[in-house]
Each structure stands twice: as C-alpha cells, then as structure tokens.
Amino acid sequence: MGNSIWICRICILWVFCVPYIVLASFTPQDCFFIDCGGSKVMKLGDGRVFKPDSGNSNVGLSPDSHAVISDPQVAISDDLFLYSSARVFRAKSTYTISTNQIGRHWLRLYFYPFENPYYDVKSAVFSVVANGITLMYRFSFSNSSKIAPVLKEYVVDLSGTSSKRLSLTLSPFNGSIAFINGIEVVSLPNKQFPSSAMPVPSGPEVEIPPHVAFETAYRVNMGGPLLTPKNDSLWRTWEPDKPYLVNTASARNVSGNPRLIKYPDGVSIEIAPNWVYCTAQEMADANVSDQTFNISWEFAVEHGFTYLIRMHFCDFVSRTLNTLVFNVYINRKSAIDSFDPSSKTMELSAAYFIDFVANLSKGSNRILVQVGPPTLRNFPSNAILNGLEIMKMSNPSGSLDGNFPADFIVSKRPSKKNWVVLAISSASAGFAILVLISVAFFLYLRRICLKKPKDQCSSWLPVPTHVGNSDSKVSIGSSTSTAYSLGLNRILAFSEICKATKNFDESLVLGVGGFGKVYRGVLENETLVAVKRGNPRSRQGFTEFRTEIEMLSKLRHRHLVSLIGYCEELNERILVYEYMAGGPLRKHLYGSNLQPLTWKQRLEICIGAAKGLHYLHTGAAESIIHRDVKTTNILLDENLTAKVADFGLSKLGPTLDQTHVSTAVKGSFGYLDPEYYRRQQLTEKSDVYSFGVVLMEVLCARPAINPALPREQVNIAEWAMNWQKKGKLEKIIDPHLIGSINLKSLRKFGETAEKCLAEYGTERPTMGDVLWNLEYALQLQEACIQTVSAENSANYIPEIPEWLPQTEPGSNGDVGGAHAMSDREFDVASSGVFSQLMDPKGR
Ligand SMILES: *[C@@H]1O[C@H](CO)[C@@H](O)[C@H](O)[C@H]1NC(C)=O
Ligand SMILES: *[C@@H]1O[C@H](CO)[C@@H](O)[C@H](O)[C@H]1NC(C)=O
Ligand SMILES: *[C@@H]1O[C@H](CO)[C@@H](O)[C@H](O)[C@H]1NC(C)=O
Ligand SMILES: *[C@@H]1O[C@H](CO)[C@@H](O)[C@H](O)[C@H]1NC(C)=O
Ligand SMILES: *[C@@H]1O[C@H](CO)[C@@H](O)[C@H](O)[C@H]1NC(C)=O
Ligand SMILES: *[C@@H]1O[C@H](CO)[C@@H](O)[C@H](O)[C@H]1NC(C)=O
Ligand SMILES: *[C@@H]1O[C@H](CO)[C@@H](O)[C@H](O)[C@H]1NC(C)=O
C-alpha cells in the first residue's frame, strides 16, 4: 500500500524533470532528485528540482527513520541547501525507486553531518548498498579532520533481477545510525560506458560486463575552470587539474572557442561538454626546439581495484592536420604510442575520447597519467590533454569499497512476501484454482497426519499422486523406478517418514537450512537416518531437490554422504540420508564444547573430504562440480570419517569441448571463487578455491567470515594468505595446535591452501594434487611423531601466536547430523553484529 504511494511520488517527480541544456540530444528518461528529510520543493538554477522524500509515512523506509533539519542559523548557500536536512535511520532501511528504464544510471548520494541536537550524525558508521553492489562499507565522518559535504557519484546497472527498480539500502553498523541528505538518480545514454577497453600495460581487450558498477574517482577539466552541474547536461562536476599536476611549470593552459568544438559520430555532448574540449594543458614553451619532458598528473586511488580511465582529446592547438603527435602513458607504461588525435577525427577541433583499464596491483595506490613527445622527432614537440575521468570499477565481490559483497550487509533471504507476489503473478485463473485445491487438500492431510498419535501415522493411506510405496512394494514412475531398480535410492512413503521422525518431532531437529529442517530419524529396519524435509509451502528448492537426487543416484563413495531414499508426495519433498553422528566439521573446529581435534585428525578429515571432491571431479562419467564446499557441508561420522554432503547446488562440469559452465553465481559467501564471481564461469577449480578456505578454517579454527573482527581479519582467505605470504602462518593457527603441530607439516599445508586460493583457476592445483599434498603433510607429521621421543621438540612450534583466533561461542545454532546449513547462510549468523546487519523483517 505504502509502496504505491512512494512510486506515485516518484512518478510525479519524473514529470517535473525538465532537461536543462537545450543543446542536449539526450533526454534522460529517469531523473529523480530527492531531498532526504526535506520539507519543500527546491528548484536549482541548473534545472534540477529536488523534492522532499516526504514524511515518515514513506514506504521502503523503516518506520523509525527521522528527518533532521539543520539549525536555520547555519548559513548554507542555495546550492548547498541539500545539506541542510537529512534522514536518519536507526536500523537497516531501503529506499526503493521505480524507474522508467533499465540499464545504467547515475546515482549520486549527498552526505553532510551537520550539528543538530538530536543525533550525533558525525560519528555515524554505516554501509550503503544499491542493487547488490556495495557502495560504501562502514563509512564514517568521525575520522576526517575537517567536516565537509561529501558527494559520492556512482554508475549502477538496473538490469538483472531487480529491473526498473533501484533499491538503496543504508545499514547502520553495530548500533550506530545511518543518514543521508540527498539522492539523485539519472539515466545514462546507452553508449556512455564501453563494453570493453584496452588494458595498460597493453594486452588483449578487457571485457567490461554490464553488471559492473563504477564510482567516479576523478573528473578533471585540463587547463580549464571548474565546471558545475550547470555546464553539464548530465549534471556532472569537472574540477580543474592544477592540484594533480606533478610539475606545474611543465604545463601551460590553452583554450579555444567552445562554439567551434565539433562532435563527430560516436561522441556526444553527454560524453563531455564542449567546455571540457575547448581547454587543455599543453607542454609549456612548446615551440622551443629541444623539449623532452612529459606533463604528469598524479591521482591517489585505492589499490586492489581496476580503474576505467577515459581521456578526452581535442586538437584545437594545431594549424593543420597531423602535426600534433605525442605519447600517452599510464603508470609509466605506454598507453598510446605516437598518438595523433587529428588522424582519428580527420578534422581539427573535434572531440575524441579513448578508454583504458588499469589494474592497481597491491601496494600501489597512485595513478600517474603522462603525455609527452615521441622519441621520433620529425614533429615539433607538443602534447595535450583536455579532460580525464577515472572511474573505479566494482570488484569480483560486487563491491566498490573493500571486499565486502552486498549479501554481507543486506541479507537476501527469501521472504514470505516474495513468495506471495510470485504466486499471484504466475497464477493464471485455472492454475490458481488447482493450486488452491491442492494446497487445501495438502493442509487437510497434513493436519490428519500431525494430529493422529504416532502409531497411527502409518495408517495414513497413499493419495492419488503418490508415486512410491514402502520398500515392500514396487514403485511406479519413470525416473524414480530406475533409481530403485539400480538399488541406489529407495522411494519412501510419507507415512514411513512420519513414523521414523515421530511426526517430525521438534526435539529431533538436527538443524535448519535454506531447504528446510533436518530431523534425526530411525527407519523400520533400525537404520539411523537424517531426514531433510523441504519447506512444503514453497516451490523454492525444487530444482535443488531434483539435482541432489540425480547427483546422488549416480554417485557412491566412501567420502560422500549417501542418500538412502527420498519421498516426493504432493508438496512434500524429503531426502533421507545416512546419519552422520559426528555432525558438521565446523562444530568440531569452533563454536561448541567438543574436544578440539588433533592435527592428525584434522589432516585425515581434510584428506577424506579431498578424496570425496576428487571423486566428484573425476570419478563419475561426467565431472561434477559441488559448488558449495564449506565446513558445514563436510560431515563426520562416529569415527570422524569425513563425507562431503549437500549436492543441492551441484552442476555437471564442462564437457570436453567446453572449458567452463556458465551459470548464475551461487554458493556461500566467504567460500566463493573470485573468478567465478567475476566471470560467472564455473570450473572444478571453483571447488578447489572453496576447499582452500576450508583448509584455512581447519587450521585457524575460525569462521570464513567474521564481521566482528577488524576489517583486515574479517575474511579468512585474505587474512591467512597475508600471513602465509609472510611465511608466518603459525602466528594465526588454532592455539590448541601449538606444541603438537610439526612445522614442516604446517608449511606443506599452508602452501597447499595458498595454491588453492590462487586468484586464477588455472593457477590452482587439481583436487588430485591437493590430495597428494595433504597426504604428504600427514606423512611429515607422522614421521615427526615417530622420531619425537629421540629428538627434542625443536620441530614443533613452541611459542604462542601473538594473535589468538577468536572463537565464537555463540555460533552453534547449527548442531546436527546433516545438511544443517544448505543455503547461503553466513558463518556467524548468531553473532551480535550479524543479527544487527540482518533485518529480521526482511524485505
Ligand atoms: C578511525 O580510525 C581508527 C584509527 O585510525 C580506526 O581504528 C577506525 O576503524 C576508524 N574508524 C572508521 C569508522 O573508519
Ligand atoms: C591559465 O593560465 C593563466 C596564466 O598562467 C592563469 O592566470 C589562469 O588562471 C589559468 N587558467 C586556468 C583555468 O587554470
Ligand atoms: C556554464 O554555462 C553557461 C551557459 O550555459 C556559461 O555562460 C558559463 O560561462 C559556463 N561556465 C563555465 C565555467 O564554462
Ligand atoms: C612560441 O611561438 C610563438 C609564435 O609562434 C611566439 O609568439 C612565442 O613567443 C614563442 N614562445 C617562446 C617561448 O618562444
Ligand atoms: C615520459 O614518461 C615515460 C613513462 O614514465 C618515460 O618512459 C619517458 O621516457 C618519458 N619521456 C620523457 C621525454 O621524459
Ligand atoms: C590485472 O592484474 C592481473 C595480475 O595481477 C592480470 O593477470 C590481469 O590481466 C590484469 N588486468 C588488467 C585489466 O590489466
Ligand atoms: C559493537 O558495539 C558494542 C557496544 O556499543 C561494543 O562493545 C562492541 O565492541 C562493538 N563491536 C564492534 C565489532 O565494533
């Protein structure tokens, strides 16, 4: 209800949107200007009309959001009026803006922590997510020495799952608040950003997929004045280049007549206004004959990200064509050799731009852009640059700030509401009736089943759609009967399962996962089993259910959890597995009071799991990729033998003529292969990566992701790799291992994990290699145990690590024998911080 009011408001806003620049060939379909917490409509000189986000009744906003207005005494100029009001949030909240178009949009966010008597907005710490992209992570003004307004500009793509809708979520960190002063959403022309660009240093063109988001790092007008949104049809700001010039004496500003700037095909005023093209920096004293220097600009950026660098050129300084030739360098590497802008445009005073992507490797946090004369000196020495844009590109985790995927901040649990919407929109009249009847029928039957005393449960008779019977009867049905005849999986009757689990007695629940609850049960023949019951009301998980049956029907291995049978009656989807008394590996590592595992036990468990995965990858006729390798999916039996479980997400691997499987990203955060995330191409090496995370978890006894820790420690893959690269992995190992772990064995293990965690799949070992290396690590440990009585214990690690991994006493919600956490659950779901981040209300 409230939602529609909000959407309406946005529509009204849109009607008021008047493109200001008459010259502009492009009229944005979407332009929303929102004054958060404001109270009146504000029309700016540049044509933008800001509207209040209006009272608390706005939906998409949490009910406890508060508008805050600055003290009127605070003199804020007309242009900065946006900064005089804000909306403050105590809990995670979302602005939802329905747009007219899909595709890329500018998203500008305004922040200014003005003094006010109600909230300490200056010390607010919060994260911001837009359509699955992390824009800001734990942002705060509290560390800045000078408080100034902050305008953040992003480009986000609205295609994909949430088309025509921008969801902007602000999430306060750990009891803090979040606030925002203004939001701007403007659609972009189609061709504004390239789908590929040349890398520097040069190589094959790098693809820029549409889902990549950008953040404007710098937008500079070389040799010209500050250009405000007034001078730009897309309301961008271009700053002068003086602050970035490395040597101001090397450059001289030149300007031409803005009216004479020509826009050839492929370049429009939306790429950059003529005010950018009509000014430039050229080499100072350009007509002195012997000039050999570069003009250099230097920009501070964040390492670890890839940047899109767009250079704007317009040769209005030459008298004739082909007389201005120069070299362009990025980070001291050649970007363009002997570049002649006029040869590209075939005329003078014509706009031209070119894009590059540059990788900021670890440790480097500057981008150096240089233009200078070529070494071949048949031309007068000169070089120009008119404009420069540096855009940060979202990384494989879908983040523009650190390595924190949006899932980490905004949980994406399927909510009931989604289900209802889905049901309504997909139900045609007849289908709807059918669904209603069968739901009613099902509920009726279920009631009978649940109400009757347990010994009568089996008296419940098969219903018409019943496809299988108890083991004494032959089943009907195509695929299921094949499975039966192969002797692999039994089809179990619902009644039988009711009996085995005492009508799904809550006291037998072993765990709860995305698929549903897992119960302990005893079959008639006294076999202990784990019964995984899909949530009967949702069709979600149906594919997973089928996948798992199909996969497990083909597979039998000592290190894979066996499927004993399944039941598919009406809406019930139940899988019955062998019972794994030891429960998930994670429980033995941290978060419970179980006896800590010895190093040898840990190695044997890793070896077992590696064998299971190796078999998946190579053993069956077709290679199988597990896709969700993690410590909760490695189960232990009563003898601590490891078995790999949960094939709900598994996929058949690439066939011989393919090198990868293309697929939407699924899996668990913290274990996801960055390459898979980036390119959505699945190979066996994605499992190898996840297994590398498991290895580190086994060694350090801490969750893959622990948001309660300082930022650099949150992600185990990053944190442990840092120590491994320094050769000091022992500093962060599980304290229980100190004194008993052999250093050589640890080194071997660390190296193996490091290789598994390599950035690119091709650099990672196969599961077979991993297995071999782990067995070697075990031998090293055993050899040492045999000789230890003779030698002294010099081979052991005697000292206590400086940093002791934190265990999570609270995170043992997933006790149980099987498949407790089969969805993309977070590793520290029950830590205090986390319950804060995850809105229990969902969306
Ligand atoms: C502020 O700075 C301190 C020390 O430099 C750092 O520990 C803290 O995380 C910073 N806070 C934020 C919100 O960035
Ligand atoms: C261009 O250079 C002149 C002289 O050096 C200086 O006065 C002027 O401010 C410069 N213009 C810009 C836009 O930097
Ligand atoms: C901005 O544009 C207006 C006209 O649209 C022009 O008069 C003004 O000089 C421009 N400002 C700059 C800095 O170019
Ligand atoms: C560069 O050449 C112009 C004419 O072409 C001349 O006016 C100017 O003085 C020269 N500059 C220098 C530094 O020689
Ligand atoms: C310009 O910079 C590049 C890269 O930093 C360097 O290789 C080249 O020698 C420089 N050119 C001159 C003339 O100094
Ligand atoms: C980024 O760096 C990696 C290695 O550090 C390299 O393999 C990759 O090709 C680079 N990408 C670009 C766009 O330069
Ligand atoms: C969260 O806040 C509480 C109290 O405000 C504090 O004790 C705790 O250390 C904070 N946790 C983190 C991870 O900052």
Description of the structure:
With 843 residues, the protein is an alpha+beta fold. It folds into 4 domains: 2-23 and 193-393, Sandwich (Jelly Rolls); 31-99 and 108-186, Jelly Rolls (Sandwich); 458-579, Phosphorylase Kinase, domain 1; 583-650 and 660-778 and 814-832, Transferase(Phosphotransferase), domain 1. Helices cover 22% and strands 24% of the residues. The chain has 17 helices and 40 strands. The strands form 9 sheets. Strands 1, 2, 3, 7, 10, 13, 14, 15, 16, 17, 21, 24 and 27 form a 13-stranded mixed sheet that branches. A 6-stranded mixed sheet has the order 28-32-33-31-30-29, with helices on both faces. A 4-stranded antiparallel sheet has the order 6-11-8-9. A hairpin with a 2-residue loop joins strand 8 (125-130) and strand 9. Helix 11 packs antiparallel against helix 13 (684-700) and helix 15 runs antiparallel to helix 16. The chain is globular. Residues 1-24, 412-488, 789-795 and 798-843 have low confidence and may be disordered. The chain binds 2-acetamido-2-deoxy-beta-D-glucopyranose (7 copies). The site of one 2-acetamido-2-deoxy-beta-D-glucopyranose has 6 residues, from strand 24. This is Protein kinase domain-containing protein. The chain crosses the membrane at residues 419-445. It is a single-pass membrane protein.
